From TrEMBL:
Pfam families: Glucosamine_iso (PF01182)
Family matches, as HAMAP family: GlcN6P_deamin
Gene3D superfamilies assigned: 3.40.50.1360
CDD domains: GlcN6P_deaminase (cd01399)
Activity regulation annotation text: Allosterically activated by N-acetylglucosamine 6-phosphate (GlcNAc6P).
Chain ranges of the Glucosamine/galactosamine-6-phosphate isomerase domain: 11-225
Catalytic activity: alpha-D-glucosamine 6-phosphate + H2O = beta-D-fructose 6-phosphate + NH4(+)
Function: Catalyzes the reversible isomerization-deamination of glucosamine 6-phosphate (GlcN6P) to form fructose 6-phosphate (Fru6P) and ammonium ion.
Organism of derivation: Agromyces tropicus
InterPro entries in alphabetical order: Glc/Gal-6P_isomerase, Glucosamine6P_isomerase, Glucosamine6P_isomerase_CS, NagB/RpiA_transferase-like
Pathway: Amino-sugar metabolism; N-acetylneuraminate degradation; D-fructose 6-phosphate from N-acetylneuraminate: step 5/5
PANTHER family named in the record: GLUCOSAMINE-6-PHOSPHATE ISOMERASE (PTHR11280)
Name of this chain's protein: Glucosamine-6-phosphate deaminase
Lineage: Bacteria, Bacillati, Actinomycetota, Actinomycetes, Micrococcales
EC numbers, comma separated: 3.5.99.6
């Protein structure tokens, strides 16, 4: 059962997540952090950078793995996740770029690049804390509905709905790549702690299906129910379709001090 924390605003939820991640890095400077892209975690990264500047958090031994990447964008394309992670995470936090990993979506053989990424994650000892967003269709990473809940890092085809959702980052939907490399659902479930962020009414149905619906490949986010340590940080609109909301609010007031 996930811990569900409902905050009034995305900023408050992101700040809470950032404080927790900063404290985790302070306790364990060689942490392996999994990062998501998209709009949702952007404030968390800014907040983490602010805490680093204010408290002098040592991030020199932090290792980062991204969840996914488009296939076929040229290296250096501003909307490639390699560039997004470089801007929002590596540069913002002042990380050593050699410790920041993104699947190689411009590789001549993306299938081999996917396998190699999975091996690289394994060699690093796996992800300790994974930040996740969720797609309006319930995807995590780029694992679209129908993805095997045991899947590993691989090449996937993006759904029209995901390409349409991400068209805001490109000039038009047809410029959004049709393929990606994504960590599998099984790969994501191997992380020690999953921190899901979801904000806005557009995520409400996906959040309810993921946290309270049946566990099914039709909603890849529902695989979170199979993980022993999940924290979901939501704003009010994203929590609106949860049936057990009252319980979560009660549970939050009873939480021990060591949780988020
Ligand atoms: C994107 C990413 C996911 C992200 C999700 C939600 O396409 N591949 O990692 O969590 O879709 O995106 P957003 O946060 O912009 O709503």
């Amino acid at each position: 059962m996930a811990e569900v924390i409902i905050e009034r605003t995305p900023q408050a939820a992101s700040a809470r997540a950032a404080r927790h991640i900063a404290a985790t890095i302070a306790a364990r400077p060689d942490l392996v952090l999994g990062v998501a892209t998209g709009s949702t975690p952007a404030h968390l990264y800014r907040e983490l950078a602010r805490i680093r500047d204010r408290d002098g958090l040592d991030v020199s031994r932090l290792t980062v793995f991204a969840l996914d990447e488009y296939v076929g964008l040229p290296a250096g394309h501003p909307e490639s996740y390699a560039e997004v992670v470089r801007r929002e995470v590596t540069d913002a936090l002042g990380l050593d770029p050699s410790r920041v990993h993104v699947p190689d979506g411009s590789a001549a053989d993306p299938f081999a690049a996917a396998d190699e990424y999975e091996q690289r994650m394994e060699a690093a000892g796996g992800v300790d804390v994974q930040i996740l967003g969720i797609g309006g269709n319930g995807h995590i990473g780029f694992n679209e509905p129908g993805s095997s809940l045991r899947s590993r890092t691989r090449v996937k085809t993006l759904s029209r709905s995901t390409r349409t959702a991400n068209a805001r980052f490109f000039d038009e939907v047809d410029r959004v790549p049709a393929h990606c490399i994504t960590q599998g659902v099984g790969t994501i479930l191997d992380a020690g702690h999953l921190v899901l962020l979801a904000f806005g009414a557009g995520k409400a149905d996906a959040v309810a299906a993921a946290l309270e619906g049946p566990v099914t490949a039709s909603v890849p986010g529902s695989a979170l129910q199979l993980h022993p340590h999940v924290t979901a940080l939501l704003d009010d609109p994203a929590a609106a379709a949860l049936a057990h909301r009252e319980y979560y609010d009660d549970a939050w007031s009873l939480k021990p001090a060591d949780v988020l």
